[in-house]
Amino acid sequence: MVTNTANSGNLLYWSSAGRSYQFTILVIACLALGGSFFLPVLSIEQQFWIVIVPIGVFGLSHGGADTSILKKLTATSKSNVLLLLLAYMLASLAFVALIWTLPLVALLVFLGMSVWHFGYTDEAFLSSERDLLLRCLSGSMAVLGPILGHPQQTSELFSWLIKIETSAVLDVLVWMGPLLAGLWLLGFAYMMLRKSNRPSLRVLAEWCLVGATLIVLPPLLSFAFYFCVIHSMRHFLAISEHCLLSNQKSLAKAFPARKIIPSTLGALVLAIVAWGIIVWIEPSPSLLTEAIRVMFWALAALTFPHAIIVRLWWDQRPAE
C-alpha cells in the first residue's frame, strides 16, 4: 500500500508554499465553521447563486493548464498534441453520451473519478510517500461530508442529476452514509495504528477541520469550499512548483492569463450553450434544475479527461 521510493509528491509535501497554504486552509475552515452557526437555512437555489461564480472562476480555470500538460506529455510534437487534444475532446463527448443514456452510471463514475482525482492531488501535499489509503480517505471527504451532514438536500441534487424521485435517493443515502462513514473510520484507525507513514499532526488537523466543515456546510457550499479552496488551489500550486506555465514559482506569476483565460472562457461558453440545448430539447418547469445539471455534468465531462492527463503528467515527472 505504501512504497518508500521517492516520488514527485515529495517536492509538494515539503514545499514551503504547500505548507503555507495548508495553514490558509485551516484558517478558512475555522472561519467557515464559526460562520456556519450564524448561517440561515439556505435553499439549493440560494446556495447555487452563492457558488456559481467561485466554481466558474476557480473550478474551470484550474483546468486551464491542460493544453500545456498535453504538450509536456507529447514532447511538444504538434501532431501528437493535436491527437491528444482530439482524444481529450472525444473522452468528454463519450462521457456526455454516458450521461445522456445512463445517468446513474455516469453519476457513480463521476463520484468515483472525483474521489480518485481529489485524493491524488491531496496525497502529494499530505504525504512524502505514495499512500493509497491516505488517498482514498482524503479524496472521499468531499463526497462523504454532504451525504452525512445534509442527506435531504444532497439527495435532491442527485435526483435532479439522474432524474428520479428524491425519496428513492434519500432511502439509499440514509443507510449508505453511515456505512461509508464506518468504513472511513476503520481506514483511519488502521492508518493511525500502522507502523509506517502515519499521518502527521498537520494532516490530522486538516482532516478534522476540513471534515467538520464539509459536514456542517450545506451541500453546494460544502462542495465549493473543497473544490475551490482546497483542490483547485492545490492544483495551481502543483503547476507553479513545477514551473509548467512559467519559470516563476510565485503563484501570482505562474499563470500567464493568455494561457488560462481562453480555455476557461471556452468552457463557460460550452456550458451556457449546453444549458440552452437541454432546456430546448427537454423543457423543465425549473430552470434551476437544468442549471444544476449543466454545472455538475459539465464538470463531470471535463473531469474525466482532465483527471487522466493530470495523472499521466504526474507520473512522468522526474523523482524529486
TrEMBL record:
One of its GO terms (cellular component) is plasma membrane. It comes from the Bacteria. InterPro entries: Blh_diox. Its EC number is 1.13.11.63. The chain crosses the membrane at residues 20-41, 48-65, 85-111, 172-192, 204-227, 260-282, 294-314. GO terms for molecular function: beta-carotene 15,15'-dioxygenase activity; carotenoid dioxygenase activity; iron ion binding. Keywords: Cell membrane, Dioxygenase, Iron, Membrane, Metal-binding, Oxidoreductase, Transmembrane, Transmembrane helix. It is a multi-pass membrane protein. It catalyses: all-trans-beta-carotene + O2 = 2 all-trans-retinal. Its cofactor is Fe(2+). It is an enzyme of class 1 (oxidoreductase). GO terms for biological process: carotene catabolic process. It is found in: Cell membrane. Fe cation binds at residues 62, 117, 231, 235. Pfam families: BCD. Belongs to the Brp/Blh beta-carotene diooxygenase family. NCBIfam families: blh_monoox. Catalyzes the cleavage of beta-carotene at its central double bond (15,15') to yield two molecules of all-trans-retinal. HAMAP family: Beta_carotene_diox. This is Probable beta-carotene 15,15'-dioxygenase. It comes from Marinobacter psychrophilus.
